[in-house]
């Protein structure tokens, strides 16, 4: 059901909140202009509708089922890996993309469809789900995503090529009578088509293995796709996607403008029927989660938080006597929340860095680095407890045996930490919400 107060503000507890933005009117018009959406659907890997070629495995922090992939998991995987797989659109064992090259498919974006799916009704476009990535039409066309048309034989192809081919035929019988997909501009299908040698790429993966190779697909981190929108059903999912996007920004894989907004379907109104264009834009804006506000810190926070953390590290180091080193390696404090203002200040001060899997790791300094690895893990746990009590920040230790590099293995960590670091279907993970958000669910 729609929220009775879709524009409700939340106390941030150091995280992002719903709130009006500077230049909101301009941004709203940009966001609610014509968009296309790549909808993520439930995938049954045991069925005849499974993709013809799938990843052999995901990174170790991806939690997924061997037989079923949920749309929530697939959306997060696409964002975290900055990659949408190109496929041949297999349905009941048959290809829906009849060409030598696979594609990434898009559909026209509609708020009415999202509301219908949310409330259990059939949407106008059957492809619609509450999990999607959207692009402005102008950005899509400039980047090589084009509408397709369908021939009388049921085969779809890029619109410009199809029209050209149909005009070349002289006989009426041979002429293809093209129509837009589903005979409705609102249901138009768009495709980004892989331009390389797909068969050769797949053959190399099969021969050489997965190291250094990826399945062909659309790379979301390319600058030409700036202005991406994310669609999720609820705030739990929004928090998880926020973690994913912020981690990419902190790793400098994308800029702050690559992703424009997160649209939360539960905050859309009960209906947009009868609303004016301006009222629809307002409804859209009220349902957008301001996930970037956590990047804005006060000068005082930027100054005090790093000093506080350094003092805590030195204090804990002084309490632990030096013993002969039995185990060597690196040890860090692993923060679960990448939006808390204390953690954000440490990131800005370069005291917290993000490893390749998305862990937020704080260096414990040269003084603690001289102690035995197990002793440093105990110090990290003591720091974790103090920060939990003082600021409500969840963390634990993270260590790598015989290496000072946080991307190496074998690594070890404390229990009960991770949160949105783990890429999974987060629909029921209420722990990702702030205290005030959790209470609003009761």
Identify low-pLDDT runs.
Answer: 3-25, 162-184, 434-442
Radius of gyration: 25 Å
Helix/sheet category: alpha+beta
Average predicted local confidence, pLDDT: 83
Largest sheet geometry: 10 strands, mixed
Tally of helical runs: 13
* Strand residues, percent: 15-25%
Terminal CA distance reads: 15 Å
* Overall morphology: globular
Tell me how many strands there are: 21
Count of spatially separate domains = 2
How helical, in percent, are the residues?
A: 25-40%
Gist?
With 442 residues, the chain is an alpha+beta fold.
Give the SSE map.
Blueprint: H1 24-31, E1 35-39, E2 43-44, E3 68-69, H2 71-81, E4 83-85, E5 90-91, E6 94-95, E7 103-108, H3 111-118, E8 132-136, H4 137-142, E9 145-150, E10 156-158, H5 159-168, E11 179-180, E12 189-193, H6 198-208, E13 217-219, E14 228-232, H7 235-250, E15 259-264, H8 277-286, E16 288-289, H9 299-319, E17 329-335, H10 341-348, E18 352-354, E19 360-363, H11 365-369, H12 373-391, E20 395-401, E21 411-413, H13 435-440
Parallel strand pairs: 14-15
Antiparallel strand pairs: 1-7, 1-8, 2-3, 4-13, 5-6, 7-12, 8-14, 9-10, 9-11, 9-12, 15-16, 17-19, 17-20, 18-19, 20-21
Helix pairs in contact: 1-8, 2-7, 9-10, 9-12
Features:
five-stranded antiparallel sheet, ten-stranded mixed sheet, 13 helices, single chain, disordered N terminus, DUF4427, about 450 residues, alpha+beta
């Amino acid at each position: 059901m729609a929220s009775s107060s879709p524009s409700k503000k939340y106390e941030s507890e150091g995280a992002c909140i719903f709130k009006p933005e500077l230049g909101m009117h301009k941004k709203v018009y940009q966001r609610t202009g014509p968009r296309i959406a790549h909808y993520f659907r439930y995938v049954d890997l045991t069925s005849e509708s499974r993709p013809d070629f799938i990843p052999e495995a995901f990174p170790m922090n991806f939690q997924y089922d061997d037989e079923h992939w949920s749309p929530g998991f697939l959306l997060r995987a696409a964002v975290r890996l900055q990659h949408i797989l190109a496929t041949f659109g297999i349905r009941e064992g048959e290809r829906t993309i009849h060409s030598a090259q696979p594609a990434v498919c898009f559909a026209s974006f509609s708020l009415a469809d999202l509301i219908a799916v949310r409330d259990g009704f059939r949407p106008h476009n059957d492809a619609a789900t509450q999990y999607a990535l959207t692009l402005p039409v102008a950005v899509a066309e400039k980047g090589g995503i084009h509408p397709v048309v369908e021939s009388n034989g049921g085969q779809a192809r890029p619109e410009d090529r199809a029209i050209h081919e149909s005009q070349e035929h002289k006989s009426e019988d041979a002429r293809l009578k093209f129509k837009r997909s589903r005979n409705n501009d609102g249901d138009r299908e768009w495709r980004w088509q892989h331009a390389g040698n797909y068969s050769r790429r797949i053959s190399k993966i099969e021969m050489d293995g997965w190291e250094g190779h990826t399945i062909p697909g659309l790379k979301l981190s390319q600058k030409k796709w700036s202005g991406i929108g994310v669609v999720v059903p609820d705030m739990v999912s929004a928090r998880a996607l926020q973690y994913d996007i912020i981690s990419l920004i902190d790793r400098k894989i994308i800029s702050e403008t690559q992703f424009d907004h997160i649209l939360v379907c539960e905050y859309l109104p009960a209906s947009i029927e009868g609303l004016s264009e301006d009222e629809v834009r307002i409804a859209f804006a009220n349902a957008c989660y301001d996930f970037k506000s956590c990047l804005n810190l006060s000068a005082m926070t930027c100054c005090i938080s790093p000093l506080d953390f350094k003092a805590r590290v030195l204090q804990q180091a002084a309490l632990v006597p030096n013993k002969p080193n039995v185990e060597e390696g690196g040890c860090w404090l692993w923060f679960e929340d990448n939006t808390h203002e204390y953690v954000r200040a440490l990131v800005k001060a370069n005291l917290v860095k993000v490893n390749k899997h998305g862990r937020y790791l704080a260096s414990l300094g040269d003084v603690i680095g001289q102690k035995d690895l197990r002793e440093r893990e105990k110090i990290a746990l003591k720091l974790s407890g103090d920060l939990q009590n003082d600021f409500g920040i969840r963390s634990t230790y993270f260590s790598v045996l015989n290496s000072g590099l946080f991307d190496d293995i074998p690594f070890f960590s404390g229990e009960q930490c991770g949160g949105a670091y783990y890429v999974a279907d987060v629909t029921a993970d209420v722990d990702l919400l702030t205290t005030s958000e959790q209470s609003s669910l009761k």
